Amino acid sequence: MKLEKTLLAAFAAVLTTPALAETEIPFALDWKFEGPSAPYFHALDSGYFAEADLNVTISEGAGSLDAIPKVATGAFPMGFADINSLMRFLDQNPDAPVTAVMMVYDKPPFAVVGRPSLGVSEPSDLEGKILGAPPPDGAWAQFPIFAAETGIDVDAITVEPVGFPTREPMLAEGNVAAITGFSFSSTLNLKRLGVEEEDISVLLMADYGVDLYGNAIIVNTDFAEANPEAVTAFLGAVAMGWTDAIATPDVAIEALMERNPAADAALETERLQMAIDANVLTDYVIENGMGGIDTDRMANAIEQTKSVYEFVNDPDPVLYFDPSYLPTDGSLMLK
To answer: From residue 331, how far is each of 40, 48, 93, 236, 323 by CA, in Å?
Structure first.
């Protein structure tokens, strides 16, 4: 009888013992729910986060700079943002607990997108024209470097501050001759608005001497120090999501459509493929895997930034990127 009571007590204890709590990770995207965000939703729906005991929620953003203060303040433990804007943010806020931990856009999609019918096919064509640029836009933030590398006269360009929702419509209607933006976003938005593909000129800044990195996963460093295994697991799940998206983009887009049913699946698949081909699956990533950076290239990126931005403090690459949380299990080697 005594043994029976002991077993019953042990069984009751098992029933009442709480399960291990999942780590909550709200994740702040840089932009709306469009093609390039599909890998994150695919990772969510495929259970990659859940398998690592992570409870991930994904929120849209309002530009490449948007997630930086969100993560720095701790409102979001992790986010997706432009590493070049992060450098400037940390220079102005040296004690902010935020850094990048995983490079995603090895080749940045920063671009000037114009229309040949409006006289813009090359960088020099911007002189004497109106350029539409949203102030929080990551591409606009790098425009001074693009201008310096191409030798265009910035004073000869009329810059019109525009909102993100009106950027492509203004170009489609001919109210501006060119805009700054991400190549895959602006190009396909223009096509959706009825602009013929042959009347779209995409000046990818990386093809004109801008040797910068693009958007990266960023983390609140206080959160990372308290939850290092969770951060590594999150990055591994993201890599798995991108691996699947590269292999079967249409399947990844299905997860996106669940969140944005009004989107055009074919258009968003094309947008995702553009990001994969031009920005994610570069020669460097094929050889070295996703997520890391080349120290020499990062040093050059800092020098380029110094040419157009006066640092208050001495720039230190260690402050901007911490590779120590990257998984070492081979999951970063994209197919």
So the answer is: 15, 12, 34, 6, 15
Tell me the residue range of the domain where 177 lies: 110-208
Let me know whether 118 and 264 are in one domain: no
Give the C-alpha separation, 76 to 56, whole Å: 11
Same domain, 52 and 136: no
User: Considering the entire predicted model, what is its pTM?
Assistant: 0.89
How many domains, the chain? 2
Q: How many CB atoms lie within 10 A of CB 268?
A: 24
**Is residue 18 one of the residues assigned to a domain?**
no
Assigned domain for 11 exists: no
- Name the more confident of 19 and 68: 68
Residue 330 lies inside a defined structural domain of this protein: no
Residues 228, 197 share a domain: no
**Residue 331 lies inside a defined structural domain of this protein:** no
92 with 225, same domain: the answer is yes
Distance between CA 157 and CA 127 in Å, rounded? Answer: 5
Encoding tokens for residue 174? 């001919």
State whether 29 and 93 are in the same domain: yes
pLDDT tens-digit map of 195-225:
999 999 999 999 999 999 999 999 999 999 9
Q: What is the pLDDT of residue 307?
A: 86
